[in-house]
Amino acid sequence: MSGPRDARARGEAVERLVAAWLTDRGLEPVATNQHAKGGELDLVMRDGDTLVFVEVRHRADIRHGHPLETITATKQRRLIRAARFYLQNNRLSCPCRFDVVAVIGLPPELDIQWVVNAFDAY
């Protein structure tokens, strides 16, 4: 039986794999696991002049639904709030977007789906 520590380690491993996968596709890593008021930013990356806040959602399988289904309006609001805090804290003013990367499976057999500009800050 796996506990919370195992799940956290697995999540961090998947986030590292996703960061490398996105880097291979032209994004530049800026920061990982940025804790902010009311939320956490999994990955912060750059795509040219745009700062990209990447939410990584992982499921070993889709028995309980697709990982993309977990990006609810409430989750979006938390990510937006965390991103605003990050921007303010780092005194940044630049174009931004929110991407979601859905990962299904267990390493090394992963199905990765990247949704660019998954939702807007409102």
Automatic annotation (TrEMBL):
Q: Which InterPro entries match?
A: Restrct_endonuc-II-like, tRNA_endonuc-like_dom_sf, UPF0102_YraN-like
User: Pfam families this protein is in?
Assistant: UPF0102 (PF02021)
Which N-terminal stretch is annotated as signal sequence?
none
Q: Which family does it belong to?
A: Belongs to the UPF0102 family.
Which HAMAP family does the UniProt entry name for this protein?
A: UPF0102 (MF_00048)
Family matches, as NCBIfam families: PRK12497.1-3 (NF009150), YraN family protein (TIGR00252)
Protein's name according to its UniProt entry: UPF0102 protein E0702_07305
Q: Which organism is it from?
A: Halomonas marinisediminis
